[in-house]
Amino acid sequence: MRWIHRALLAFFVFALVLTPTTANADTLSDLRARIGQAQSAVRDLTGRRQGQRVVVEQLRGVTGAYAAELRKVDADLMAAVGRFRQAEADLERVDAEAVRLEGEIAAKEEAVRQRAGVYGTRLRALYKFTRTSPLEQLLGARSFTDALHRMTMMQAVTRVDNRLLGQLRSEHDELTLAREALARNRAEQAVLRDELDQQRVALEERRAEQASLVLMAQQEQRTAESALSEFDRESQTQASRIRSLELQFERELAEIERQRQEEIQRLEQQRFAQATAARAVADASATAQARVQATQAAQSAQAAQAAQATQTAQAARPSASPTQAASRPGATATPARAAAPTSTAGTGVATTLAGVGATTSPAARTAATQAPLPGSVSTGSLQPSSYNMQYPVPNPVVTTEWGERTFAQNFHTGIDLAQQSRTAVLAAADGVVLEAGLAVPGKPDQSYGMMVIVGHGGNLSTLYAHLDVGSYAPTVKAGERVKRGQTIGYIGMTGITSGPHVHFEVRENGQPQNPRKYLPR
Fold it and tell me: Which residues form the signal peptide (predicted)?
């Protein structure tokens, strides 16, 4: 059963290689915790930044509304100032018209006075010249015709004077009415100007108030934008810190990988030395067995020769009876037949070595090679489980179970199914491909490496990680339908892995579950 011991030794060596030192594990755990804290801070900053962004947008809206209202007030103020200026211009025009009318009225009044004076002067002159009244002038006429002529002349002069005087009075009255209308118009224009002036003053006060509101809103907006910029700077600082921690984490992983490779190389050399020693022991055992077999063959030949000699001696002595021959001390037939066991009994050590060496014969070694390893699963006779699932790799060796601690995970979220590199990986059940590609775009040596995720309905999905790339990349794409047992990729060494295997996960609602529950038994 030496092959069992070798397999167990290899398994323990493999587990030892995959388990990081306590110091490295603590360092990685600390880095993960710090990265988690930084990511939590970034999420908190992102939430606060989004809230601050809403505040900034609201303040921008308020500032815009205040600015729009200020522009409207400015437009109303400009219009009011225009109307006020127009009213002042109209008032000045009315004042000028009043001055002009006052001048015309004064002129008309002066003309009336002058005409009245001329008329009076004429009457006085006539009275002084003749010393007669108009009646006397009529009575002093030499004839009726002369009297009529005098009367006609007097009436004509009177009519002319009266007409001119009436015309002057009419123009004076018209100018007086125009002056009164102009006075009323001026009063109205003054009232309008005063009203417009009040509107202008009110609009100026409103503008000052609105400008103050705009200034306050702009100050609040600048304060909010400054806080938003501070959130952005903090987010950038946290992002830089996360990147620095991730780089440190990657360096720690690289150091662990280097130590792991050195340990693998050392253990491989140790295993090779042990195998060489085992082969030497096996060869020595085989040689001892051969010697024992040769000794047994020689002893058997000697026993046969002795028996033959005894038979010949007995044939040469016909007078002796069989009973006498058997009773003679020189008879050796019985001892001769007992020779083989006697010699075999004398080589007990060789026999034991031969028994040990027999396990290293070619047949024994072939049997040991064909015997199942610890953790191996024979899938040939297994039927799909109650979940209609099968193993994604034929006849795998389960190297890591669900929940165990590995050098990459404190809690293993699936099972590792080891098999030869580029062995076909099969869909565990019917479904639709949800993802097919690198877990970390552009970085095939990180995380799960190349992977495929298949959805099976009912919030159930399966994940296949550490697949090969290049010409052995996954054979399916996102959105394709697959059948149970269909090839979706090939075993590779992408991502964080120590040997060719498939990391197989089963998820319900996105949460990893124990795959053993869903696979056939």
Answer: 1-25
252, 374, 341: which is closest to 3 by C-alpha? 374
* Tally of CB atoms within 10 A around 290: 13
The domain 397-517 having CATH identifier 3.40.50.150: the answer here is no
**444: amino acid identity, one letter:** P
Cα four-point dihedral sign 261, 263, 266, 272: negative
Q: Residue 476 in 3-state DSSP? A: coil
Looking at the chain, the number of H-run helices and the number of E-run strands are 9, 10
Query: Please, are residues 467 and 452 in contact by the beta-carbon 8 Å criterion?
Result: yes
Q: Where are the domains of the chain?
A: 23-245, 397-517
- Report whether CATH 1.10.287 matches the domain 23-245: yes
Q: Tell me the C-alpha distance between 38 and 32, whole Å.
A: 10
**453 strand-pairing partners:** 435, 463
DSSP H helical segments within 316-433, as ranges?
322-327, 333-337, 339-345, 348-358, 362-370
Distance between terminal CA atoms of the chain?
27
Q: How far is it, in rounded angstroms, from Cα 433 to Cα 427?
A: 10
Whether this prediction's pTM lies above 0.90 is answered by: no
The pair of three-digit structure tokens given for residue 96, joined into one six-digit string: 């000028």
Both tokens of residue 309?
Answer: 């000699």
Mean pLDDT of the chain: 76
